[in-house]
Amino acid sequence: MELKEKEHQLLYRVQLDEFGASLQKYGDKDTSTIKDWFDAFHRLENLLEKKKSKKKQVVFIDELPWLDTPRSGFLSAFEHFWNSWGAGKHNLLLIVCGSATTWMLDEFINSKGGLYGRVTCEMHLHPFNLAETEAYLKHRKLTMERYDITQTYMLTGGVAYYLSYFQQGKSLAQNIDELFFQENGFLQTEYDRLFTSLFADNTNYRKIVEVLSGKRYGITRETIATETGISAGGTLSQMLKALVKSDLVSTYHNFDESKRNVYYKLTDMFCLFYLGFVQKNPTNNHTFWYDNQNAPKLNTWRGLAFEDVCFVHQEQIRTALGISGVQTEIYPWHATTNGKTSGAQIDMLIDRADRVVNLCEMKFTQGEFVIDKTYDEKLRNKLSALQFKTQNRKNIQPTLVTTYGLKMNMYSNRIQRIVTLDDLFRK
Asked: Does any domain span residue 117?
């Protein structure tokens, strides 16, 4: 405990010194040692007062939660700075950001303390979509076709930090091996760092995510409580809310069920990949991905991951179908009996207000998708199950979301709408 206290004190001192250095960079002439956070913010006040101007003054503080170390008094000093001085300065714009989701939610967004009601604008920075990922890779002069960019997205979920590790002149397989499977790969330990950075006490958050990683169609809050051993009370609700806010988990309602039945589904692609390959299937093969590019387990992963990519790009799919102005509900669907899956499972349903349901099948292939007799039979079974569920009250349109389109043959006419990879790359 004594060692931990010394570490906290050292970090506290370094943060104050760096804050002082930043003030001096922008004109503060006081070079004496900053005593504490109250002293630090008094000096910021003095600096801004000396720069009196009718023009907008912008103060930007990055990674705010990490300044709030134990017994540092940071939050009290920050509240005092804003409530006693900053809030009354109409030309002052204070921007703060942080990746520690629970801290930002508890101390800022949902604060019941000194900062209650003080936030005037909240900006949630989401990961890149496919179009933004393509633009970022081009900016870094990484040349990839869209098929490989999509696989890159399946690994990274469009997080720029992860994408920044991909190197020019190396194939996708070589990059994946270097990042995940070679000794000291940059992203080998990222899963642990991710939860440490997002959540102060992350044990139960990890339990939830790891249970959800094995539930393809998501589960309810009650089932999460049962399988994790976390009490199904307000604390679990707050944790689930934080996971959703962090873009790790998504919620949806199952088709034709009560809206009270909320399903939670793990949709963060980095976590899904890490838990599926790195954690559950550890290997000493440093060229694992390169050696297994066409292995069935990798092809299975690509198919499932493509479904996740499609759910992130719902707006692009709606635009491609020409229904961007139509009210819709979008979710995966599985036929259930007494709350249990029983038969037909559909990748995505788009339930539209114009009494149409798009039954969407996602297929990630290297060429045009071919419907054979076996797949046609499966599709007919899915259509029958959905027609029974809707009692023919809605028009069902079989829709294919795939990489390079559909090859025409004797079975292809059953598909009424086609969305391709290029459609998903629309801005």
From this structure: no
Give 114 or 268, the one with higher predicted confidence.
Answer: 268
296 burial (CB, 10 Å; 0-12 / 13-18 / 19+) is exposed
Cα separation of 210 and 293, whole Å?
26
Helix (H, G, I), strand (E, B) or coil at 326: coil
Question: Which residues, in sequence order, are CB contacts of 356 under 8 Å at separation 6+?
Answer: 394, 395, 396, 397
Q: Indicate whether 28 and 138 sit together in one domain.
A: no
Q: How far apart are CA 286 and CA 177, in angstroms?
A: 6
Q: Is residue 292 part of a domain?
A: yes
When mean pLDDT is compared over 88-102, 116-130, 231-245, 396-410, the highest value belongs to 396-410
For the chain, the domain total comes to 3
Q: What is the pLDDT of residues 208-220, one digit of tens each?
A: 999 999 998 889 9
User: 3-class SS at 5?
Assistant: helix
| 280 and 365 both lie in a single domain | no
Q: At what angle do helices 203-212 and 221-228 cross, to 10 degrees?
A: 110
Burial 303-318 (b: 16+ CB within 10 A, else e): eebbbbbbbbbeebbb
Amino acid at 173: A
Domain that holds residue 209: 128-308
User: In sequence order, what E strands does 371-412 have?
Assistant: 395-402
* CA 36/CA 78 separation, integer angstroms: 11
Backbone dihedral angles phi then psi of residue 316, each to the nearest 5 degrees: -65, -40
Among 102, 291, 264, which residue's Cα sits nearest to residue 199?
102
Q: What is the pLDDT of residues 5-26, one digit of tens each?
A: 677 788 889 999 999 999 999 9
Domain boundary among the residues 278, 308, 338 is at 308
pTM above 0.85, yes or no: yes
CA dist., res. 119 & res. 111, Å (int):
9
CATH label of the domain that carries residue 275: 1.10.10.10
